[in-house]
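Holo model, 2-aminohexanedioic acid. Inputs:
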Amino acid sequence: MDYQNFINGEWVGAKNGQRLESYEPATGEVIGTVPLSQAEDVDAAVAAAKAAYKEWRLVPAPARGEMLFTVAELLKRRKEEISQFLSREMGKVIAEARGDVQEAIDMAYYMGGEGRRLFGKVAPSELRHKASWAQRDPIGVAGLITPWNFPVAIPAWKMFPALVAGNTVVFKPAEDTPILAALLMEVMQEAGIPDGVVNMVTGDGPNAGNAIVEHPDVKVISFTGSAAVGRIVAAKGGKLLKKVSLELGGKNAVIVMDDANLDLVLDATIWGAFGTTGQRCTATSRVITTAGIRDELSERLVARAKQLRLGHGADPETDVGPLINQEALDKVVSYEQVAQEQGARLLLGGERAEIGGGFFYQPTIYDNVGATSRLAQEEIFGPVLSIIEADDVVDAIEKANSIEYGLSCAIFTQDVNRAFHAIRDLETGLCYVNHSTIGAEISLPFGGMKGTGNGGREAAWTALDTFTEWKSVYVDWSGTLQRAQIDNR
Ligand code: UN1
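Output:
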């Protein structure tokens, strides 16, 4: 399967003709190629987006929204085909692949509906013959740089709010999942999104991604990825006074109190830690538990995790798919040494799984992990879970908060007082009571506090804050000069 860049409604190769291979992480086999684009290809995409913006911003928002409803319908029609391919190119298990595509469908309907809202605010004027309100204006060309772990959902989270608000888009998907991005472009084209309104350029971060960030005609950047790259994007974008929205890492905890429903904790923790092979920014990577339940919890977690079947994501029997690539596998492997050095006790896994040519790693559990150790602090992005002990709810919350990130946290308890304690004091953008750290819905803001980002939120109405500027409008219909703060006093 060979795909091209999508620029100004046409499928075109990179100007220098170079290609990038995409392969199946479960087998290591190449499944297709896409252009390995450079700055000159980004220039062409930005020029198309800039030209298309002139007209797209004037298309009434309800009409823009209706096109997103068509996108939703087309995605629904192609859901199974795209999900099957997602399992191959990204590696996640088929049920989760369907969830990934579903999240894009949900977002298309939500943002389609925003076409009839995009609400501004009216405020009473201080003066008699004067009207005042604030409205959302589009910004211009939006640059979207997306990761491979939600290769359909995350581009949709960015693209659909950008479009309904009247922006045009230059989109660079992750190198590991470019063909899925091309399938999404096919859907956009079939839905009748006008030429140049959405453009896709495939390639790597240092060349294509960087060219988007540095291009003077790209006015807003939305990036999801590692904290290290996020800092670079923020610094470069900041220098050019661009709007920059970042969704970065997580090191999410479930807090388990002695009174928790243990069966539920087990289901939720196994799902949160080993679902998507731990490759979600919301994945559960720490269990913080009080002494009364600790031994039984770790014993049963290990017993459950042992039963997980590793394999190809498209096989319906598989519970845990591969890691995305060799680099990801090497990173996870490197934490074996870290765990040893820091005195953690290995309860399960702690090594690769040899399955075909794929990048598999055993579900891994450590206990005796210090809350400040590297194992408990750093985002591993793999199937590695650390058990940490806490004295009580106050200590557990403090340990949960003692990291640089602030994306998601869960507490398991039957005690409403403890639950509200956690809701008040957790420093995370997502907070769950008696539910896993993964599985946010698109109708509420998605994002994190502290090192997880720079304050923006994706999804819901808040996504529009990234892709619009507020314009305050005053209409004076008095025919005379009415001076605010002066003539009314
Ligand atoms: C991510 O891992 O980057 O809440 C996004 C969740 C999903 C989204 C995860 N709805 O786990």
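The domain at 5-248+453-473 is CATH 3.40.605.10 (Aldehyde Dehydrogenase; Chain A, domain 1). The longest strand covers residues 130-138.
Archived with the compound record.
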